[in-house]
């Protein structure tokens, strides 16, 4: 049983004031039973006299400011205590009666004039649960349902709810807290079982706001504008601030700290800023004003403060577009004459252009650019503020070409940069170009091809060449000339470019069918270009077909054609193509001819010589033909010739190979001469090789240390081959041939010298001289092995000498030398 009544003070929550680093004051917590501090768990006997000093509130301010103390009660309850605000002494002013009221709720606070605070550990209220049981079953303990998510704690025996150590309350974060308290009895047995009863209640802790947050400006940043037509006293803008303590806001006062230079003022209550001077008197384009707001406490003293910057711009009205000026005032067309292809980077000094914008500040800023063919000129400056001299510079000299465009036209554009209106203006720039000799004459083609007949007379036109020089006046006049190895037969007109043949020229397609040379086009200053000319002579049919030299006589073997051939010296087809025909035959036409190849055949009905013997009057199988060779030109030319053909058969030819050979080469004697010359060359080469080999062999035998006996082998008798030549007879169809062997020659033959001569062979003798022939029908070709001797056909053979005198002398001399060598060998052995 308590001896006194509890006075449980309630808690008022405060915001910490961070503005200007002003922290809230706080109470000292001196624990249970103390008589000064925060009145936590304070108890008082009910018989305490009224007017007694029962407790002293004690606290401090972090900044060291003076503090004051306050106490309040619920409006429906009695005010039991009073406090001295300066010293914190609490006095009992009402009688206490425990039976009527066993606890008293009071709210105490401490303030430094700006902030109030409820300290950690302060008692907020006391909960009380009644259990009508006695003993342990009637004892009650208290605890919180969720101790981790709350800033509060409860005394388990007394039920006093207090703020946890280190915890603070913030009105701006949470205006109310809900705490669930559980009351549980000590437990006991009920109907034979252990039972524990509990009950819960929810305590709502309302947080009251205190002055702990500085004022705040809203709608920042602030910008204001003063226009050139703004009147003095006109409103520029309004700044707005609110007290950060929304529960109990203080009155706010506005003021200008600096930056106005006397040109602006502010209403301290409404925050309206207005201009006090005319725009023409303002010396700056931008003003940075510093506005301060201050809280005024209930006591009328200044409290928390805040500061904000306000930017005021003096705005010029954009009512002037950029304007171009010439030497005599505003101008929108500028003209200039200049030569084409000026140097890169050259300034067009003939243009005097100025641009100006009468506005001020940003309204007078504009860009310059040229509108027209791009990349030819550039303008400087490209950005202008108020006024500038305009300069135009050559950027692409090659594009400034008189031949492409005699006049260049551009527009000079000035346009504002940062204004809503984007005022602009233009001026025409016209440049008249003057021509220079900057072009080379160029032919219309890199080469020219011409064709003229070979019989064209001297002075005939061949081809006309054309070169163009785009320059004007005398610079565009072109002169022509030709040169080159093929230009000797041609001339060119220097002005017209017509190429013609020399007056004395005689063209011949068979001699030279094509000519090529160069033509040059040159202007008055020596600029020139070249083209190539190709002239082809067109062939004219001006040659007759011509038969070959060996044409008059042919020999035909049955089943084999003979061929005639004529050539036409014309250069091109069809003038040099020849067709053949038989125009007349004696005695009877038994022949067919291939018109294209010239091959002559016996008709298919003629199959043997017997058939031909019956046709010819004399039975000699000889025909005379008149053949014609005709070209395909226009007009056409032809040639006729007489041809004599002797006809034979293969049986007659097979009697003698040599005769067959001679018969086959009868139409081509050079072929026979070539074959005979080849045979002689082979024989001479073999003889030289054998002689050389023998010489080296005998020479090596002299140094051998072993004696040898050389026995002479009998040498075969040399053979002399004589070929009988058959004289061609016009009355016979073929010649007869015979091979005849001479009598054995006693002289040694060169073919057997390798085995019968002594080891050292003599030097090869000089070739024998051939004795001139004594008769037309008898001739001899001497060789190493024999001689060819023609024979008279169908005549009795006459005895022939064994050899010519030169041959006999040579063989005798060789024999004597060989015998002498053999005697020397025998003596040696």
Strand content: 35-45%
Low-confidence stretches: 1-21, 702-811, 825-829
Structural class, from helix and strand content?
mainly beta
Mean pLDDT over the residues: 77
The number of helical runs is 6
Number of strands: 60
N→C terminal distance: 180 Å
Radius of gyration over C-alpha positions, nearest whole angstrom = 73 Å
Q: Biggest β-sheet: count, sense, barrel?
A: 5 strands, mixed
Amount of helix: under 10%
Molecular shape:
elongated
Question: Which secondary structure elements does this structure contain, and how are they paired or packed?
Answer:
Elements: E1 4-11, E2 26-27, E3 36-37, E4 43-45, E5 53-57, E6 59-60, E7 68-72, E8 81-83, E9 89-92, E10 103-111, E11 116-117, E12 123-126, E13 140-144, E14 152-154, E15 160-163, E16 176-185, E17 188-190, E18 193-195, E19 198-206, E20 216-218, E21 222-227, E22 235-238, E23 240-242, E24 251-258, E25 264-266, E26 272-275, E27 286-296, E28 302-315, E29 323-326, E30 329-330, E31 333-339, E32 353-356, E33 365-371, E34 377-380, E35 383-385, E36 387-394, E37 407-416, E38 424-434, E39 442-443, E40 447-453, E41 461-464, E42 467-468, E43 479-483, E44 490-492, E45 498-501, E46 514-522, E47 528-538, E48 546-547, E49 553-557, E50 562-563, E51 566-567, E52 578-586, E53 591-593, E54 599-602, H1 609-615, E55 622-631, E56 638-648, H2 650-653, H3 657-664, H4 669-701, E57 721-724, E58 738-741, H5 753-756, E59 781-782, E60 787-788, H6 805-828
Parallel strand pairs: 1-10, 3-5, 21-28, 31-38, 40-47, 49-56
Antiparallel strand pairs: 1-4, 2-6, 5-9, 7-10, 8-9, 10-11, 12-15, 13-16, 14-15, 16-19, 17-18, 20-23, 22-26, 24-27, 25-26, 27-28, 29-30, 29-32, 32-36, 33-35, 33-37, 34-36, 37-38, 39-42, 41-45, 43-46, 44-45, 46-47, 48-51, 50-54, 52-55, 53-54, 55-56, 57-58, 59-60
């Amino acid at each position: 049983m308590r001896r006194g009544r509890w006075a449980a003070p309630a808690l008022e929550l405060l915001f910490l004031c961070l503005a200007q680093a002003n922290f809230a004051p706080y109470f000292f917590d001196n624990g249970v039973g103390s008589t000064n501090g925060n009145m936590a768990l304070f108890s008082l006997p009910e018989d305490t006299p009224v007017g007694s000093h029962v407790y002293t509130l004690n606290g401090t301010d972090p900044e060291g400011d003076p503090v004051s103390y306050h106490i309040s009660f619920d409006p429906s309850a009695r005010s039991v205590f009073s406090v001295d605000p300066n010293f914190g002494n609490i006095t009992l002013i009402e009688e206490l009666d425990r039976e009527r009221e066993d606890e008293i709720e009071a709210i105490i606070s401490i303030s430094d004039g700006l902030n109030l605070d409820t300290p950690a550990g302060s008692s907020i209220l006391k909960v009380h649960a009644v259990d009508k049981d006695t003993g342990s079953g009637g004892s009650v303990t208290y605890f919180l349902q969720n101790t981790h998510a709350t800033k509060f704690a409860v005394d388990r025996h007394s039920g006093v709810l207090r703020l946890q150590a280190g915890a603070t309350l913030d009105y701006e974060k949470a205006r109310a807290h809900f705490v669930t308290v559980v009351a549980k009895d000590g437990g006991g047995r009920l109907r034979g079982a252990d039972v524990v009863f509990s009950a819960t209640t929810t305590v709502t802790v309302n947080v009251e706001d205190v002055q702990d947050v500085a004022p705040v400006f809203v709608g920042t940043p602030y910008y204001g504008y003063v226009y050139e037509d703004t009147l003095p006293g006109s409103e520029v803008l309004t700044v707005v601030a609110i007290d950060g303590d929304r529960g109990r806001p203080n009155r706010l006062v506005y003021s200008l700290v600096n930056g106005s230079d006397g040109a602006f003022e502010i209403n301290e209550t409404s925050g309206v800023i207005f201009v006090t001077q005319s725009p023409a008197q303002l010396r700056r384009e931008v003003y940075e004003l510093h506005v301060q707001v201050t809280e005024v406490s209930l006591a009328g003293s200044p409290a928390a403060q805040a500061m904000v910057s306000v930017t005021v711009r003096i705005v010029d009205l954009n009512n002037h577009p950029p304007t171009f000026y010439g030497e005599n005032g505003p101008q929108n067309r500028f003209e200039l004459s200049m030569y084409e292809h000026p140097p890169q980077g050259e300034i067009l000094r003939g243009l005097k252009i100025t641009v100006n914008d009468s506005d001020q500040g940003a309204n007078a800023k504009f860009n310059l650019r040229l509108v027209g063919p791009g990349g030819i000129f550039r303008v400087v400056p490209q950005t202008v503020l108020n006024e500038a001299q305009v300069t135009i510079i050559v950027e692409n000299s090659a594009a400034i070409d008189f031949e492409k465009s005699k006049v260049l036209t551009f527009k000079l554009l000035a346009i504002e940069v940062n204004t809503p209106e984007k005022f602009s203006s233009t001026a025409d720039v016209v440049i008249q170009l003057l021509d220079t000799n900057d072009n080379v004459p160029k032919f219309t083609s890199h080469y020219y091809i011409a064709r003229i007949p070979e019989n064209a007379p001297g002075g005939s036109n061949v081809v006309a060449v054309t070169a163009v020089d785009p320059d004007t006046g005398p610079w565009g006049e072109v002169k022509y000339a030709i040169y080159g190895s093929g230009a000797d037969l041609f001339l060119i007109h220097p002005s017209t470019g017509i190429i013609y043949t020399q007056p004395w020229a005689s063209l011949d397609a068979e001699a030279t069918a094509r000519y090529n040379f160069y033509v040059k086009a040159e202007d008055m200053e020596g600029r020139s270009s070249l083209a190539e000319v190709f002239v082809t002579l067109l062939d004219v049919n001006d040659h007759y077909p011509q038969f070959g030299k060996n044409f008059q006589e042919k020999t035909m073997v049955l089943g084999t054609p003979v061929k005639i051939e004529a050539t036409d010296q014309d250069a091109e087809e069809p003038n040099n193509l020849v067709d053949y025909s038989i125009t007349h035959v004696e005695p009877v036409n038994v022949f067919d001819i291939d018109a294209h190849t010239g091959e002559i055949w016996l008709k298919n009905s003629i199959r043997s010589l017997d058939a031909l013997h019956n046709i010819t009057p004399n039975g000699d199988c000889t025909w005379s033909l008149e053949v014609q060779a005709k070209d395909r030109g226009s007009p056409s030319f032809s040639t006729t010739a007489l041809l004599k053909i002797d006809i034979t058969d293969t049986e007659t030819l097979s009697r003698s190979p040599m005769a067959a050979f001679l018969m086959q080469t009868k139409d081509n004697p050079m072929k026979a001469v070539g074959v005979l010359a080849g045979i002689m060359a082979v024989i001479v080469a073999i003889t030289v090789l054998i002689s050389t080999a023998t010489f080296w062999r005998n020479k090596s035998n002299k140094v051998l240390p072993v004696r040898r006996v050389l026995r002479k082998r009998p040498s075969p008798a040399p053979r002399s081959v004589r070929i009988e030549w058959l004289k061609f007879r016009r009355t016979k169809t073929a010649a007869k041939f015979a091979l005849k062997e001479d009598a054995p020659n006693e002289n040694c033959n060169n073919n057997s010298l390798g085995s019968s001569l002594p080891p050292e062979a003599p030097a090869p003798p000089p070739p024998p001289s051939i004795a001139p022939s004594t008769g037309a029908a008898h001739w001899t070709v001497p060789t190493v092995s024999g001689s060819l001797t023609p024979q008279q056909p169908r005549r009795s053979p006459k005895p022939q000498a064994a050899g010519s005198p030169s041959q006999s002398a040579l063989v005798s001399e060789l024999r004597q030398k060989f015998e002498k060598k053999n005697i020397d060998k025998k003596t040696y052995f």
